[in-house]
Amino acid sequence: MADKIVFTRGVPPPEAFPTEELGACFDAAVRENPGVVLQYGQQPGYAPLREELAREYGVSPQEILIGNGSLQLQDLVSSYLVKAGAAVYTEQPSYDRAIKTFRRRGARAVGIPLEEDGIIIERLEAALRREVPAFLYLVPDFQNPAGATISLEKRRRVVELADEYGFWVIEDIPYRKLRYEGEDIPLLREIDPSHVITMSSFSKLLSPGIRVGFMISPENLINEVTALGEDTYLSPVLPTQAAVAEYLRRGLLGPNIERLKDLYTPRWKTMSGAVRRELPGAQAFIPSGGFFVSVMLPEDANTQNLAGRAKDIGLVLTPGAAFFADPEEGEKAEGDRFVRLPFCAVTPEQIEEGVRRLASLV
């Protein structure tokens, strides 16, 4: 049996963790301020971390809530904004766990098709004419799962539409700082923050296990979601938040991001090259950063039980259908033809061999 190659979760490999630095920051955070850090309290999150983030994003600390990763914050925002049966628009495809979270809160998750420079604006406009959603959920930079990045022109139009129709836009940006080529495109909030909820986390930059994410939005929404959080989990996890604050205060994040780019860039190049070479008939999304390359296989490809057949030859895939919300115009979602290919936690050799195995199946 060939060695197993895992193309499923977008996780950092163990060598990505800044173990020694984080350990020192945990130690300092707990010892220097145990009366706060080991106690209940600080409902919107650890105050020094909110202040660090407020400086970075040019907002007040009152506009920031820190939670256990951004998915928990998406859940809280959904429970506040979604009335049962309301629509939530996502990109099509979109982050599978976000789709699941919105549905669990009673939303109809409706997917607006995506192309290489982001959500198709004409389709979004048509959907808005039919129904205004509770919110639109976007991953604007190096999207999970497709890898697409929304162009500046489309970002401008999205915030105009949010203003015109009066709906919220969640921009989820966990991959944004992992750009391997090209220039940053402004955040939606930098264009117009009035209807924008920005979310991110330290899962991809430091460690998923510490569960530290944050959201930035107008203060009144922060207050409502903070109250929901308190009713849900009583008190935030202050030791991890304090360790992250210490990490930022010591100026360690910038150098760590550069180290991650050095680690991931060869893997990104290998995956991009292997997909172009081995799957020439597929529509490939090749990002300029992040964790994922993806492909939409040709219509005549053999996609019957693809994940099951892949397992038989030692290749572990996530079934593509999980990333697709309800189709917005009654058309069939193309989930069976979609394959997400995470590259950060696999070596270049495993990437080459894994893509070869995938090509042999289709």
Structure notes:
The chain has 362 residues and is of the alpha/beta class. The chain folds into two domains: 5-16 and 255-361, Aspartate Aminotransferase, domain 1, CATH 3.90.1150; 19-249, Aspartate Aminotransferase, domain 2, CATH 3.40.640. Helix content is 42%, strand content 17%. It contains 13 helices and 14 strands. The mean pLDDT is 95.
Q: How many structural domains in the coordinates?
A: 2
> Whole-Å distance between the termini?
20 Å
Instruction: Please report the number of helical segments.
Output: 13
Helices and strands, in N-to-C order?
EHHHEHEHEEHEHEHEEHHHEEHEEEH
CATH fold-level topology of the largest domain: Aspartate Aminotransferase, domain 2
Q: Sheet bearing the most strands, described? A: 9 strands, mixed
| Residues in helix, % | 40-55%
Rg measurement, Å = 20 Å
Mean of residue pLDDT?
Answer: 95
- In total, how many beta strands? 14
Mind telling me the CATH class of the largest domain? Alpha Beta
Large-scale geometry: globular
Write the layout of secondary structure elements.
Layout: E1 5-7, H1 19-32, H2 34-37, H3 47-57, E2 64-67, H4 69-81, E3 87-92, H5 96-104, E4 108-115, E5 118-119, H6 121-130, E6 135-138, H7 152-165, E7 168-172, H8 188-191, E8 196-201, E9 213-216, H9 219-233, H10 238-249, H11 253-278, E10 283-285, E11 292-296, H12 306-312, E12 315-317, E13 326-327, E14 338-342, H13 348-361
Parallel strand pairs: 1-12, 3-4, 3-6, 4-13, 6-7, 7-8
Antiparallel strand pairs: 2-9, 4-5, 8-9, 10-11, 11-14
Helix pairs in contact: 1-10, 3-10, 4-5, 4-9, 11-13
